[in-house]
Amino acid sequence: MTPDRATDAMGTSGRFNTTRWSLILSSLDGETEVGKAREALAQLCRIYWRPIFAYVCRRGHSVPDAQDLTQDFFVMVLKGNLLQQADPERGRFRSLLLRSLQNFLLDAHAKGRARKRGGEVQLVAWDEWMAEAPSRLTIPAAVLNSWPAERVFDVRWAATVAEQALRRLQEECESRGRRRVFDILSGSLTAERADVSYDSLARELGVGTAEIKRALHRLRQRYRQLLREEVAQTVAQPDDVDEELRYLCAALAAGSEA
Predict the structure, then answer these.
(1) Contact 9/16 with Cβ under 8 angstroms?
(2) Which residue ranges of the chain lie beneath pLDDT 50?
(3) pLDDT of residue 184
(4) If you compute the radius of gyration of the chain from its CA atoms, what whole number of angstroms results?
(5) Nearest-CA neighbor of 190 among 156, 226, 220, 165?
(6) Which long-range contacts (CB under 8 A, 24 or more apart) does 38-44 make?
(7) How far apart are CA 158 and CA 152, in angstroms?
(8) How crowded is residue 218: how many other Cβ atoms within 10 Å of its Cβ?
């Protein structure tokens, strides 16, 4: 999703535009083509590999089996009746996905039928995906092993959403010839202002401190906007965005504390 397309989740006038999740839900009432809804679902699935995979691993599956089960789960989502299970009144894609995954893993047949890797159906090659979306959030294995699987899912979900927004910000900067500015300033996007060495950043970029403060302020503003857009893609109503953002920030804080 690029900022110049009409997919700004809140719109320039504050109106809640069509998002991936609202597109999926509208298909239940026949207001949207099923093909478009499934395309939106496929886009969301591609983003949510990491939290699903982390959850399956935490439930005790080996890495190869977790890869196969994750692959199988998303094939089931895309070919099955997940859309019909959606609750337009309360549904958040994150919640529906986790609930569906729990049911999937409870099924004895699903547990026992891990496909041989490289099977007939594959959404994206694992090596390709891991290279495409390396996580910036590192959590010690001992901590992960002590957390409930649901908490692992939440933290990985929050990191995935934040990293998706960060990637979009990087792409925007690169398109304007400001990739080096992004590379140097991005590490300070979420830092407390008192912890940012503006003088050091200014020396590294060869500009004045005042210019660094302005540039970082603009990057932070745009990052928050992109993060809000990413969250909005997965909720049904505009009123849900702020609550989901708070949930995301709490999950990220838990991951950072670890």
Answers:
(1) yes
(2) 1-16, 108, 116-121, 129-132
(3) 95
(4) 20
(5) 220
(6) 38/78, 38/83, 41/77, 41/78, 41/82, 41/83, 42/78, 42/123, 44/20, 44/93, 44/233, 44/234
(7) 10
(8) 11
For the record, the structure tokens of 187 come out as 């590490």
∠ Cα 43 53 55 (to 5°): 120
Written as one letter, the residue type at 255 is: G
Backbone angles phi, psi at 235, to 5 degrees: -125, 160
Q: 139 CB contacts (<8 Å, ≥6 apart)?
A: 155, 255, 258
Residues 6 or more apart whose CB falls under 8 angstroms from that of 73 comprise 52, 56, 100, 101, 104, 110
Which residue reads 């691993």 in tokens?
Answer: 57
Q: State residue 14's pLDDT score.
A: 41
User: pLDDT tens digits, residue range 146-191?
Assistant: 899 999 999 989 988 998 899 999 999 999 999 999 999 999 998 8
